[in-house]
């Protein structure tokens, strides 16, 4: 078993044990709380574990001593698991905001709570119950990620390193929340804002909503736990941010053109949700007036049918926007690779990071 696969197994075991402990607490309060554990287990049973892997590889890159590696491994596994729980919290809230029906091939959390209401024959509005209950689930997962992070960092002998890792986590949490708001703002306010700045705004959303918390922050948190030098940490930041941008741009392409069998979400879901991505910004700039207006008219309509989705997909592809985004992905990947050339880490650690970079930028799910 490779180190990466072993980490994924250890992270899953840690998450399972953590949820089992909270299942006891929920059971002591009342059996009706079981959906919170059940839905959390379902959401946290899958996923690509990229954040956990980047955290581990950031630590691996700066850790030299075999003794410190063994002592810190328990900490790293818990912190990596905390990052996965934080990601799950973000997904629950994101699906509510976007009114998404599906996540990882299953009903989104708010839809599961909505269905629970309907099948139970309860009073009131099922959709409102679903949203309210899922907001609480997202909040609960957010709190749990903090709890598991603190548990992990408490095992770290170097308290300065623990405090530095905690500060980075706090910064990540703030930035992704601000990024989420910028995304919501753009979807609702783009008509009243300067058209010339639309691509810059879409790029800023990528950085703060996704790139930093998906790659840069986990990588740096791992390096800080390993007591990496300032130079090592800064080079890893220089690697992580452009790679995170490339990661999200690939995600945006999959959100429009991805195969539902692989992505676990309906084809063209980002079009129904009205995502004002870099892909859309470039397409609008390159499309002729009538096609651009049609894109604006249809984008964000939750009732888009399959034919309308195919029409939008064809327009975006024919505009050349897909090719442009692929070039931006390639450029950011190259920038990330260059950042590793002068950093003081082992050849083995560098190879692992480059393999992980390949996984996140060329994926189909």
Q: How big is the Rg?
A: 21 Å
CATH topology: Farnesyl Diphosphate Synthase
What order do the SSEs take from the amino end to the carboxyl end, as H and E? HHHHEEHHHHHHHHHHHH
How many distinct beta strands?
2
Q: How helix-rich are the residues, as a percent range?
A: over 70%
Low-pLDDT stretches are: none
Global mean pLDDT: 94
Question: What is the assigned CATH homologous superfamily?
Answer: Farnesyl Diphosphate Synthase
Spatially, the strands of the biggest sheet line up as: 1-2
What is the C-level CATH assignment?
Answer: Mainly Alpha
Give the N-terminus to C-terminus distance in angstroms: 23 Å
Pfam families: polyprenyl_synt
Cofactor: Mg(2+)
Organism: Homoserinimonas aerilata
Keywords: Magnesium, Metal-binding, Transferase
Description:
By secondary structure, this protein is mainly alpha-helical. The protein has helices spanning 3-29, 34-44, 50-62, 66-98, 109-120, 126-153, 159-189, 198-225, 230-257, 260-263, 269-273, 278-286, 289-298, 306-318, 321-339, 347-361, and strands at 102-103, 106-107. A two-stranded antiparallel ribbon has the order 1-2. A hairpin with a 2-residue loop joins strand 1 and strand 2. The radius of gyration is 21 Å and the shape is globular. The chain starts with a helix and ends with a helix. The model has no long low-confidence stretch (mean pLDDT 94).
């Amino acid at each position: 078993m490779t180190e990466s696969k072993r980490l994924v197994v250890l992270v899953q075991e840690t998450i399972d044990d953590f949820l089992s402990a909270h299942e006891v607490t929920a059971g002591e309060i009342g059996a009706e709380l079981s959906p919170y554990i059940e839905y959390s287990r379902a959401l946290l049973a899958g996923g690509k574990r990229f954040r956990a892997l980047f955290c581990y590889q950031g630590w691996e890159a700066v850790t030299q001593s075999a003794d410190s590696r063994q002592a810190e491994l328990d900490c790293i596994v818990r912190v990596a698991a905390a990052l996965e729980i934080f990601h799950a919290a973000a997904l629950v809230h994101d699906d509510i905001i976007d009114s998404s029906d599906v996540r990882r091939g299953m009903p989104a959390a708010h839809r599961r709570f909505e269905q629970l209401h309907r099948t139970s024959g309860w009073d009131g509005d099922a959709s409102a119950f679903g949203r309210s209950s899922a907001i609480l689930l997202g909040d609960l997962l957010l709190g749990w990620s903090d709890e598991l992070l603190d548990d992990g960092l408490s095992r770290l002998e170097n308290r300065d390193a623990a405090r530095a890792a905690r500060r980075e986590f706090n910064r990540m949490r703030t930035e992704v929340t601000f990024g989420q708001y910028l995304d919501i703002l753009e979807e609702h306010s783009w008509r009243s804002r300067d058209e010339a700045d639309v691509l810059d705004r879409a790029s800023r959303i990528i950085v703060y909503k996704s790139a930093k918390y998906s790659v840069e922050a986990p990588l740096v948190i791992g390096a800080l736990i390993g007591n990496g030098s300032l130079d090592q940490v800064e080079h890893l930041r220089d690697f992580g941010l452009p790679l995170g941008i490339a990661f999200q741009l690939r995600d945006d392409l999959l959100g429009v053109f991805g195969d539902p069998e692989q992505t676990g979400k309906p084809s063209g879901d980002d079009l129904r949700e009205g995502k004002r991505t870099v892909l859309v910004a470039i397409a609008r700039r390159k499309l002729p007036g009538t096609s651009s207006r049609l894109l604006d008219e249809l984008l964000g309509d939750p009732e888009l049918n399959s034919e309308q989705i195919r029409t939008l997909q064809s327009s975006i592809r024919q505009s050349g926007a897909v090719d442009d985004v692929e070039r931006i992905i390639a450029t950011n990947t190259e920038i990330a690779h260059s950042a590793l050339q002068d950093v003081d880490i082992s050849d083995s650690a560098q190879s692992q990071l480059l393999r992980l970079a390949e996984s996140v930028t060329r994926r189909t799910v």
